[in-house]
Structure formats: structure tokens, C-alpha cells
Amino acid sequence: QSLPQQKLLTWLSVLECVEVFAEMGTARVWGEMGRWTIIVLIQLAKAILRLLLLLWYKAGIQTSPPIVPLNREQQQPLHPQDMEESSSGKDQTYVGRRSSRVVRSLQNTPSLQSRHWGSPQQREESQSRRVEELNQPPTPLGLQETIAESIYITRPLLHLLSLGVWGQRSWKPWLLSAVLDISSLSLLSDLKDLNRRERAELRRRTILLLYYLLRSPFYDRYSEGRILLLLRLLADYVPGVGFVTRPLMDYLPAWQKIYFYNWG
């Protein structure tokens, strides 16, 4: 990735990290008008950054989060002693004569903070496999797939626009958003040679369609009573489940009112 593309991904990641805090803080200071203003500005900035990545840098299907989180255990470099021994040609492992079990030799035991429980070969293989996955180029998108990804990127802006036109109690913004999400996924379903990260992203988007059960006005009219009743029954009749379901019952109404948790 080029340096400008990395900067765009960094800014996009920063926006996704602070959007909930910005919404709640602005609502506390400036009320509902300030809350919806910051929501529109953040969604507009995110859409511009994503469209630049899609159309200018040909980033393909964009994942969420934009920057893959660092797995420190897998990214941990080999112990210097391991590197010296491997470069000198000495064996790092010992194979038992009768058990055929592979164990690390005592001369190659790393320090405690960098110790892992696999053989050096397994660790090198996992690191090389992860590097290959991260370095896989994005799948080239045709016209249909580019339109589908553009629909997915602009869907939040169209939803906010429809909320301003028809109001929060109307079914039209909910239906418009659902149609756009389903249309984007159906147009992207024809892609075959996707890498692992892109397949995981499409699965994530498909699972997120369940959020429409928690989004107003569907949640207010149909889902709220049934979900709370189910959680209450689980808490009352299933031993041990109440430790999870009772806090969830208290948290769900507050979560549902935060835009970036529910719609972002």
C-alpha cells in the first residue's frame, strides 16, 4: 500500500474508534441537534474516505476495521538466540526415539516473555501464512461489483437523508436501508476468487442484516417486547443465564438509542 492509502486507512480507523464517543459527547453538550450534526459529518467523512479508497486506489472490498488488528503473539519476532542457532545450522528441536515427539532443545529455549508453546517450525509456518494473507492483493472489482460496494458505502448517507425527509418513525428509511444492503450483497455474491479477509467481510455484512430486528421502527413495534420476554424467561428458568441476560435487558434499550452502535 502506498503512503497516502495508509493515511486514509488510518484516518478511517480513527473515525470508527471515536464515532460513538463523539455522538454521546456532542449529545451531552449540544443536545439532539448537535448529535445529528456530528453523525452526518462523521458519516460523510467516512463515505468520502471509502470512496477514495475504492475508486482512486482500487482497494476492492473494504473490511471493517479498515486496518487489520495486530496479533502480537503471531507477530512476535523470533528470539535472537533462535535466529543465531538457525543461521549456524544447529538443530532447534529434538525428536524422541520411541515417542517421535518433537520438543525444543534446551539450548534454544527463549526468554519467558517471548516463549511460545509450539515448535519453531510451526511458529515460522503460522507467521509466513499470516504474512501471505496480509499481503494478498485485493480482488479486482468489475463495474457491477464497484457499484455494489459504492451502494454499501453510501447507504448510511442515503439513510440519514431519508430520516430527514420522512422522519424517524417512518418505515421508509428502514426499508430503503435494508434494500440497499441486500442489493449490495446480492451483487457481490457473484465474485468467486476472494481472499480470506474479503470472504470474512462478506460474512460479517450478511450477519449484520440481523441488526434490522433491533432497528427502529421494527424494534419499537415488533422486536422489543419479544426479545425482552425471551431474555426474562431465560433469566428466570435457566440457571446461571441470568448473570448475562439481566444486564443485557438493561443495556439493550440504551444501546438501541445510540446511532453508531445501531446503524453505524
UniProtKB/TrEMBL annotation:
Name by which UniProt lists this protein: Peroxisomal membrane protein PEX16
Region (Disordered): 74-139
GO biological process: peroxisome organization
Amino acid composition bias (Basic and acidic residues), ranges on this chain: 122-133
Family: Belongs to the peroxin-16 family.
Localization in the cell: Peroxisome membrane
Highest rank taxon of the organism: Eukaryota
Stored InterPro entries: Pex16 (IPR013919)
Keyword set, alphabetical order: Peroxisome, Peroxisome biogenesis
Ranges of Polar residues composition bias in the record: 106-116
PANTHER family registered for this protein in UniProt: PEROXISOMAL MEMBRANE PROTEIN PEX16
